[in-house]
Amino acid sequence: MPLLDTIIDEWAGITFPRPVVALGEFKPTNGCYWCGAEMQSDVVCACMRARLHWSRVIRLGAYEEPLSDCILGGKYTAWKDMLEHLGAMLGRKLRGCVPPNSILVPIPMPPIRRCFRRINHTGVIAKHASLTSGIPIRRALWRKECMPQASKSASERTLLHRNSILLRPLPMIKGRNAILIDDVLTTGRTLEVAANKLKSARVASVRVAVLAVTKMSQNGKKM
What we know:
The strands form 2 sheets. This protein has a 4-stranded parallel β-sheet with strand order 1-6-5-2. The protein has a two-stranded antiparallel sheet with strand order 3-4. α8 links the parallel β5 (177-185) and β6. By secondary structure, it is an alpha/beta fold. α1 (2-11) packs parallel to α3 and α4 (80-94) crosses α6. Helices cover 34% and strands 16% of the residues. It has a single domain (22-34, 55-213), classed as Rossmann fold (3-Layer(aba) Sandwich), CATH 3.40.50. The protein is globular.
C-alpha cells in the first residue's frame, strides 16, 4: 500500500518526494455544484433528492489516487509540505467563486488526536488556502474528543452527535459567508454538524471547500 510505504519511508529517514511529483498528472476537477460528487452529463445528481446543509461544495477532485494517497500521507505522516501545497491549490479554486465578506472556518481536531498525529491537517490546509485566496480564517469551532470518523463505517459516521462540535466563545462570525474547510467529504455528517453550529451563530451562508469527495457508486451510495 502506498500509504504504508510512505510511513515506513518516514520512519527510515527517507525524504518525501516534492508534492508536485507525488501528485503526478493530477489536475483539479469540478463535481456537482451542491454536493461535490462526480457528475455524468446525462444523470441528475442524487443530491437533488437530499436536504443539504450548505449552498455549494468546492473541491479539488474525487477521492482516488494519486490525490487520496497524498491526503492520507498529509494526515497520518505529518507531511506538511503536501498539505500546504494542497491548501494552496484549494485557495486558487476559491478565488473569484465565493461572495464578499467570506471567511474560512477549518473543521477542528480534538486536542489529543492533534497531539498524537503531530499536525492539525485542516488547520494547515486552511492557512495556505487563506494565503492563496486572501480570504481570512476564523477558528470559530471546537471539537470534543471522539472516535475518528475515518475509523467508522458510512452508517456509523451518520450518527455523529450534534454536540461533538461546538462554537468557541465570541466567534465573531455573524453576517459572514462561512466556508468550511475539510480534507474529505464522505457522508457529510461532520460538515453538517459544523454547518448547523455556524448557522446558530447567524452566519449569512455556509459553503464547503474540501480536497476530495468520495465517489458515488451506481446505486447512489458513497463508495
